[in-house]
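Sanity check

After download, print the first record. It should look like this:
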Amino acid sequence: MFVKPMFRFVPDGTTIRFMNGRFAGLIVSAVLSAASVLLFFHPGLNLGLDFRGGVVLQVRTEQPANFPQLRAALAQAGLGDAALQSFGQGGTGVLISLESRANAQATQTAISEVETALATAAPNAKILSTQAIGASVSAQLFSQGLEALGLSFVMILAYIWFRFEWPFAVGAVTTLLLDTTKTIGFMVITRIPFDLVTIAAILTVIGYSTNDKVVVYDRVRENLRKYKSMNLRELIDLSINETLNRTLGTSSTVFLAALPLALFGGAALSGFAWVMLFGILVGTSSSIFIAAPILLFLGDRKLRRTSTLPKVKSS
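Expected structure tokens:
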């Protein structure tokens, strides 16, 4: 005997007509993805320290940081290339980024100049950490990061290809590409640094989005065999409604787990968490308003013909 959960996002037997919004969902998604591609080329991603090289110092001031005063002190010390960014709560956390130096001695000199400028502009400020990556190392990390991203994407596409019949695979791959481009566009707009940490976040988003599509598509495929004469539009709506509690429950769990990292995780984790939060919202909505309508547009005949072929068992 099964015990019903105390809380459900939607009641059993919900009959929301999701396919009524199929055109709006596809058009909005296409526009956002196209805009994201344009943003990728201009102004482009904000490369993090891992990929551009340089020096980053995390500083904590006693009072809320006076950024104009800090910039003036750094410029007077000959560090006009320094970029300042706030992090954490209370306005006392400052990230100071410097361009890559020619050698270790020049890097150490630049750090000493930052310390001198801080002593003038923000007495009693503390340097919490210092990170330095050379140009050659950053170039290698960048290429390896893109290779890892590309390889993971190919492996997921291979899984989708063997996991589903071709109409489902087309829908899953198309939706996955749209989700990924929108995530890149979000990073460009928010200027979240693109580094090894956010690559891990993008890979996690891709994996989560794929899993979400598998849940919905498996139910569609089961219902195609169960309701052989049901109208395809009604069948897809039924499948989404039947999996809606599971979809929203999983999304909410992951969202609530990532939210504290975004708010209190500091500079090291906030970028990862914000990309995750955006990816969860995009992946969940695309399973309903993008992946499902693609099946509807492929047509009843193609789906029902493939549903009679031998299937891979659901995991």
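If your output differs, re-run the checksum step. Summary of this record's structure: The chain is about 65% helix and 10% strand.
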